[in-house]
DNA sequence: CGGTTTTTAGCAAACGTTTGCCAAAAACCG
DNA sequence: CGGTTTTTGGCAAACGTTTGCTAAAAACCG
C-alpha cells in the first residue's frame, strides 16, 4: 500500500479506488460498482474505469472490503501439532489441494497450527472470533477451546478432515479406514495368513480404533478368532511412526509364535519395522508379509516395494472445500454430514502367501 | 463476527469494542487505549475495561485495525508449484518453523502457491499490492510478475529462502550447497573413490549449479580430473526425483567403466536409484557407495541406511522470519544480504571404501 | 412531443478500530 | 490555597471500500 500519490503514469503504485475515480472522472462508488457489479454501470463509463484501473495498477484493499462487507476472504486450516512425520506427504498434499480449490472460490488460505497449548488455541480462537477468517478446515484434531471460548460456538463454518466429527454435527470428510483395513486383512487371509501382527497408533485414537476394528471384522468374517492378531505400539502418536516400527521389531523378536503378516497403520511404522527385521536376517515377504496405511510415494521404492493403502487426500481436500464453501454460502447442497472417500489398496511385492 | 447485540452475560458473541465501552461506561477510544497502550489509561479504568472485555469475550477485529493502521498482520509464504516430492519434509518443516516464529511476532501465515501460471502469479501480486500482506518469504522461487506488476516493485519486505537472490539485493537465507557437496566428495576421495556418478537436478538450476560445482572443487583440490565424474539427469525438476533416480539406474547400467560412488542431489533420487540398482543385483555399499542431499528422516531406515547431507531447515525458517521482521520494523540489524546456515553431513552405511 | 418507466451516477453513511487534539481532572509544589 | 504541570477521558476524523437512496438522464411508448 504505497501512498505515493505523486506518481502518475504506468508505475505500479498501490493506487486507491479514489485515484481510479479521479483519473476516470467518476465517483468512487461508480468505480466500485463497475468492478464488482458491472451490469449497474454504463458500458462507456465502465471502459473508462477499467482503463484507469489498468493504468494505475489498481488492486482492491481486501481489509477495507472485508470490513465494510463484514466478511473476510480468508479460510484457515487448523493443522495438527507436528506438521511432519517421516515419509508422509499428507500435509503438503492437503495444503496444495485445498489452496487450489480455495483460490478458485476467491479465498486465501491461512495456516493455524494447533499445538494443544494455550497460545496456539487462543490464536485460533482470535482468528475465528475477530472475524479474520470466514471458515475453517480442521485436520485430524478436536475443536480448540480456551477461556470460555470454543471454536464450536464461534458460528464459523467448519469442516473436519480425516477425523469423523459428524456425531457432533460437524461436516466431516473421511476415508474408509475400517473398510480398507478389513479388505487388506481379508486379502491376507485369502492368501493363507493366520497369524497377524498389528502395529498400532495411539490407543483410543479415532484412526486406530477404526483400523483395528477393520482387522477384527475381517477375522470374524472369515470365522477366525481375534486372538490370531497381536498388537504392538499404542503409546506413541503417528508422528513417531519410525519409533513405533523400531519398537515393534523388538516386540516381534520376543514372540515365540511368529506371525506371518504385519499390518502397520502407517508407512513410517512399516518402513522402520522392515528395516530392523531385515537387519535381523528375516526376508520380506518370504518370511513375513507387510502392508501399511497411507500410500506415501516412497513405498514404491522400498526394498521390497511396500504394499500400502493409499488415502485419497487430494480428493478429500477438494470435497472439504466444496462443503465449506457451501456452508459459507448457506447452500444446502447435501444432507450428508459425513462424506466418505474411499482409500485404495496398492498391492506390491511386500505381500505374498505364507510359506506354510 | 456474530452481531447478536441482544445477548448479555458470559456468552461468547463476537462483541465489539463499542460493546465493551458501553459495559465499562467509557468511550470506545479509551477501550482501544487500555488494550493497546495501557500506560495511557488509569489503572482503575483499565481494570473495568479488562473485566468488561473478558466478560464479553471481546476479540479485536483485525481487518478494522489493519485498515486504520494501514498495516496487515499477515505474512505470505510463496511456495514452489508442487508442494510435495517423495520423502522430503522440507515444506512441512519450513511451514512449522516459520509459523511458530511469526505467531510469536504477532503475525499470521498465509499460503501463496506459485504455480508459474497467470492465475497464481496474479493472486500473489494482488495480496502484495492490495495491502493484504505485510511481507513475504519466498521459497526456492523467482519473484512473480504479470501485467506490469512485479513483486520486486511492490515495496513489500521480502526474504528469499533456499535460493540465493542476494545478487538482486534480496535478503536471502541459504545453506552451503557447494561446500557441503565438496566436503562429502572429498570424503569419498579420501576413502579411495576415483570414479563418480552425479545425479543431477534441472540444468541451470541454482541448487544444481552449486552442488555440481562442489563436486568439481573437491576433484580439483585433490588434483583429480573432472572427467572422473559422470552426470545423469538434468531435464527433470527435483519434485520428479524418483524418476530421475530410475533413469539414472538405466544410465548407470550403460556405463562400461562403472563409477564406485554416487552423488545424488536429492534423497528421492538416491532412494529410487538404490532400489533399482539393488534389483539388478548390485550391493550398496560393497559395489557402490551412495550419498544424497536433503536429510529426509526416512534415510535412516533405508536398506542400507543412507548417508545424506541434512539441510538446517528449521533454523533457516527462524532466520528468515527474523530478517523479515527486522525489515518490516526497519531495523538495520545486519548488513549481510546473504545469510548462510550450514548443512550437516550424516554418514551412514551407504558409504564405504571402494573394493579395489 | 409529452408523460411514464427504466437506467445510471453520485452522495452520504456504514463497517470497527486507532489516534491527534483538546479540555477537564488530578497531581504537584511553593 | 492558588498556580502550574501532568495525566486522563472523550470527540471526531481517519482508513478504503460498499451500498441504500435519490435525483437526473435516458429510453420507451402512445
Automatic annotation (TrEMBL), chains A, B:
Keywords tagged on the record: DNA-binding, Transcription, Transcription regulation
Gene Ontology molecular functions: DNA-binding transcription factor activity; transcription cis-regulatory region binding
Nucleus as UniProt keyword: no
InterPro entries, per the entry: HTH_LacI, LacI/GalR-like_sensor, Lambda_DNA-bd_dom_sf, Peripla_BP_I
CDD domains assigned to the protein according to its UniProt record, in alphabetical order: HTH_LacI (cd01392)
Coiled coil: none
HTH lacI-type domain boundaries: 15-69
Protein name: LacI family transcriptional regulator
Species in which this protein is naturally found: Rhizobium anhuiense
Amino acid at each position: 500500500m504505497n501512498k505515493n500519490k505523486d506518481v502518475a503514469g504506468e508505475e505500479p503504485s498501490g493506487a486507491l479506488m479514489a485515484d481510479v475515480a479521479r483519473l476516470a472522472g467518476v465517483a468512487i462508488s461508480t468505480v466500485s460498482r463497475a468492478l464488482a457489479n458491472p451490469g449497474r454501470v454504463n458500458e462507456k463509463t465502465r471502459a473508462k474505469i477499467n482503463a484507469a484501473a489498468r493504468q494505475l495498477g489498481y488492486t482492491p484493499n481486501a481489509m477495507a472490503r472485508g470490513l465494510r462487507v463484514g466478511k473476510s476472504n480468508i479460510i484457515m486450516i487448523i493443522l495438527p501439532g507436528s506438521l511432519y512425520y517421516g515419509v508422509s506427504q499428507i500435509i503438503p498434499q492437503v495444503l496444495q489441494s485445498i489452496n487450489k480449490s480455495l483460490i478458485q472460490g476467491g479465498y486465501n488460505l491461512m495456516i493455524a497450527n494447533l499445538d494443544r497449548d494455550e497460545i496456539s488455541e487462543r490464536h485460533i480462537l482470535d482468528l475465528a472470533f475477530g472475524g479474520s477468517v470466514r471458515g475453517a478446515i480442521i485436520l485430524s484434531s478436536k475443536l480448540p477451546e480456551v477461556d470460555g471460548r470454543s471454536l464450536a460456538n464461534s458460528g464459523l463454518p467448519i469442516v473436519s478432515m480425516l477425523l469423523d466429527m459428524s456425531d457432533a454435527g460437524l461436516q466431516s470428510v473421511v476415508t474408509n479406514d475400517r473398510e480398507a483395513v478389513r479388505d487388506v486383512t481379508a486379502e491376507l487371509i485369502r492368501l493363507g495368513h493366520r497369524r497377524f501382527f498389528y502395529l498400532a497408533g495411539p490407543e483410543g485414537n479415532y484412526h486406530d480404533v477404526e483400523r483395528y476394528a477393520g482387522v477384527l471384522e475381517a477375522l470374524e468374517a472369515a470365522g477366525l478368532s481375534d486372538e490370531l492378531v497381536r498388537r504392538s505400539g499404542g503409546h506413541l502418536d503417528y508422528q513417531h511412526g519410525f519409533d513405533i516400527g523400531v519398537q515393534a521389531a523388538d516386540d516381534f523378536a520376543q514372540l515365540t509364535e511368529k506371525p506371518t503378516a504385519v499390518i502397520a497403520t502407517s508407512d513410517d511404522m512399516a518402513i522402520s519395522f522392515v528395516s530392523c527385521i531385515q537387519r535381523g536376517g528375516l526376508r520380506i515377504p518370504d518370511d513375513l508379509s507387510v502392508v501399511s496405511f497411507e500410500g506415501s510415494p516412497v513405498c514404491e521404492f522400498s526394498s521390497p516395494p511396500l504394499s500400502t493403502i493409499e488415502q485419497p487426500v487430494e480428493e478429500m481436500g477438494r470435497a472439504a472445500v466444496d462443503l465449506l464453501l457451501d456452508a459459507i454460502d448457506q447452500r444446502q447442497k447435501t444432507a450428508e454430514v459425513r462424506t466418505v472417500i474411499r482409500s485404495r489398496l496398492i498391492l506390491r511385492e511386500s505381500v505374498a502367501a505364507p510359506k506354510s
